[in-house]
Amino acid sequence: MCGIVGLFLKDKSLEPQLGALLSGMLGTMCGRGPDSAGFAVYGAGEKGETKLTLRAAEGYDFAALAAKLGDGLDVTTRGTHAVLAVPAGREAEIRAKLAEIAPDVTVVGAGARMELYKEVGMPTDVAVRFDLAKMTGTHGVAHTRMATESAVTTNGAHPFSTGLDQCLVHNGSLSNHRTVRRNLEKAGVKVQTENDSEVAAGYLTWRMQEGRSLGEALEDSLNDLDGFYTFVVGTESGFGVLRDPIACKPAVMAETDQYVAFGSEYRALAGLPGIENAKIFEPEPAKVYFWDRAAA
């Protein structure tokens, strides 16, 4: 049993409140997943730059690491994580240099706008640790985990990101993840952990690399991924939801002129502004729901 929340803002005036709203939603899901938690926020980005979200041991000197990488790279540290801003054209070079000089540092996410944080611990503590309530942006997803098929580790926490500005959170279990993993390896998509949720993220990345939109990739997954699942996914400008054909995992959504919100339970949505006037609905089985700011 895990808890998922997501928030996609239509109203720019709410963007300064994204982190505070998402933090409140995440906190309501502690009972569904006290082992670990994480979130991805799509905030401001600079043209020509890629944000690398890094993770290392407590107390790691990310500023010293940035200095070793040279060229005056900007780094912002938040606890065990840091966001390193690099020229987009040099991302591969800097990733290779990181692997060489700092093998104990993990790149957990990358993108023009996405920052990704996750850690073992109570969801409320994780949100405070990384100052989620102070973050701004257009959309975000968050997850609370109750481990059932793999160890309680930061590597096993959600969200998972396998492509630029792409992330996925998942409640459920995939039965054919080993077969899908082998297919992804052949296609050159790297899956770093044993978690089946990362396989799902990798699958969507692969389909989008093949030219599919996020919505189309989610449609494809209905044929290729077996098991019980609810996915909430993010891209640089998009937000998607999908439940498997049986839809045994709980899900509820709310939509107003200001936002689209997702929660594993209604209580995750109850504190949102204007919720009393929102359209409240349960996402249907095997139906892709997708919103994209680029299409607005």
Protein model, in words:
- The structure is a single chain.
- This protein is α+β, with helices and mostly antiparallel strands.
- The protein has two domains: 2-43 and 122-292, Glutamine Phosphoribosylpyrophosphate, subunit 1, domain 1, CATH 3.60.20.10; 45-112, Alpha-Beta Plaits (2-Layer Sandwich).
- 24% of the residues lie in helices and 32% in strands.
- The protein has seven helices and 16 strands.
- It has helices at residues 18-27, 62-69, 91-101, 123-129, 177-187, 196-209, 214-224, and strands at residues 3-9, 36-42, 49-55, 74-78, 81-87, 106-111, 114-120, 139-145, 160-163, 166-174, 227-234, 238-243, 252-255, 259-263, 279-281, 289-292.
- It has a seven-stranded antiparallel beta sheet, covered by helices on one side. Strands 9-10-11-12-16 form a five-stranded antiparallel beta sheet. A four-stranded antiparallel beta sheet has the order 4-5-3-6, covered by helices on one side.
- A hairpin with a 2-residue loop joins strand 4 and strand 5 (81-87).
- The longest helix has 14 residues, at 196-209.
- It starts with a strand and ends with a strand.
- InterPro entries: GATase_2_dom (IPR017932), Ntn_hydrolases_N (IPR029055).
- Keywords: Glutamine amidotransferase, Transferase.
- This is Glutamine amidotransferase family protein.
